Amino acid sequence: MGNKVYTDQLPGRTLVVKGEEFLFFSGTSYLGIPVNEQFRHCVLEGMARYGTNYSSSRNSNLQLRVFEEAEDYLASYTGAEAAFTMSSGYLACQALVQVLVGSGYFIYAPNTHPAMWRSITDEVIGNYDAWVGPMLQQVQGSKEKYIILVCNSLDPLKARNHGFSWLSALPADKQITLIVDDSHGFGVTGEDGAGVFAQLKARLQPNVRLVVASSMGKALGIPAGVVLGDKELIDKLRNSHYFGGASPAIPAYLYAFLQCEAVFKEARQKLFSNIAYFLQHLERPAQFSYFDRYPVFGVHEHRLAAYLQEHGVIISSFRYPTPADNPITRIILSSAHTEGDIQRLTRLINQFGKV
User: Fold this and answer.
1) Neighbours of 210 (CB within 10 A)
2) Could you give the CA distance from residue 258 to residue 255 in angstroms, rounded to a whole number?
3) What mean pLDDT comes out for the span 176-204?
4) What is the mean pLDDT of residues 41-48?
5) Is 63 buried (19+), middle (13-18) or exposed (0-12) by CB count in 10 A?
6) Contact predicate 85/214, CB 8 Å
7) 27 band by pLDDT with thresholds 50, 70 and 90
8) pTM of the entire predicted model
9) 58: Cβ contacts below 8 Å, ≥ 6 apart
10) How far apart are CA 296 and CA 162, in angstroms?
11) Ramachandran angles phi, psi of 214, nearest 5°
12) Angle at 236 between CA 233 and CA 238, to 5 degrees
């Protein structure tokens, strides 16, 4: 089959390729929401109420209450003062950084997602841990009074949680805006899956303004993006031409999001249970990169991907960020997997270790 696998169906816990069924341990649907029957039912309910799409401006004279209800819920859920939604994480991030252009000196962490770039020149490649020290020196020595730091909350490719211990070392004489992309944590990490906002907010000095932006399309399975922050900034976003000129998130999905708190909670518990089960059944868990209660496991031995595929299991393995780079290979668990699926996977991994 080669590296790329083509299919005509949405993968859940399994995937059918040329009539053959494979177990599927890849993708970003950490909570298995796209194949969750209760969630699908709520989306259909939402579509019966709001139709399949709503392409009008949020500034039009007809206002659907579901947008405000979802944003109020997101603010309360995460501990933010206010929340702002758009039709994708990419668009929400672009609206955020473009609105902040001119209000401070931007410093980007390595491997920040392109959604956060003002232009392609903002790309930084390298190691996050190695970036922290020089960044702190740069901020300290900068003549700029207003600094905007942009980084990810975690690294889903290398399965590493970014420590933010450096926050306490930020100088108190600058006005700093910290923008964090939490797309791969939101829905899974933090209290009740609320992501990184509350954890970071509790640790910040008064001169640091926190903004968290995230796709809702990964763990939560909602085609939308969210920005969390203070009311002043969120109002600025609402008054931007990005907000007025773009179609909003699909109302039926926001309706389903509001109805499915218990569904997400149950799926999260199942995911954590699957992670624990996976680790218990591995003979050598240390062969993977991973962190506590996160469903991504970095694979150091890339040959494992081909071995598993020969035995009916597909994991994530591709060259990144360009075809010339080394492959990044990962096993990604989801709430959709059964204990039987995980037993089969761990049995094959343990066998591979003996080959």
Assistant:
1) 23
2) 5
3) 97
4) 98
5) exposed
6) no
7) very high
8) 0.95
9) 67, 238, 243, 244, 248
10) 14
11) -155, 145
12) 115
Q: Which two tokens stand for residue 229?
A: 């922050």
Is residue 196 within 8 A of residue 77, CB to CB? The reply is no
Closest CA to 6 of 314, 344, 324: 314
Distance (Å, rounded) from C-alpha 46 to C-alpha 256? 6
SS3 label, residue 5: coil
Query: Please, are residues 249 and 83 in contact by the beta-carbon 8 Å criterion?
Result: no
Give φ, ψ of 327 to 5 degrees.
-70, 150
CA torsion through residues 253, 254, 260, 263, sign: positive
Strand 14-17 to strand 20-25: parallel, antiparallel, or no bridges (unpaired)?
Answer: antiparallel
**pLDDT single digits (tens) 307-350:** 999 999 999 998 876 788 888 999 999 999 999 999 999 999 99
| Separation between Cα atoms, residue 110 and residue 254, nearest integer Å | 32
For residue 18, pLDDT over 90 is answered with no
Tokens representing residue 198 in the block: 């509350």
Strand order across the beta sheet in which 208-215 lies:
82-86, 225-229, 208-215, 175-181, 146-152, 105-108
Query: How confident is the model over 156-182, as a mean pLDDT?
Result: 95
Higher pLDDT, 63 or 326: 63
Which stretches of the chain are DSSP H helices?
A: 37-50, 65-78, 89-100, 128-141, 197-201, 231-238, 241-245, 251-259, 261-281, 303-310, 339-352
Share of residues in the chain with pLDDT > 70 (%):
99
Q: How many CB atoms lie within 10 A of CB 84?
A: 27
Nearest to 17 by CA among 2, 37, 34, 29: 2
Q: Which residue has the tokens 């609105």?
A: 99
Structure tokens at 90: 């990419």
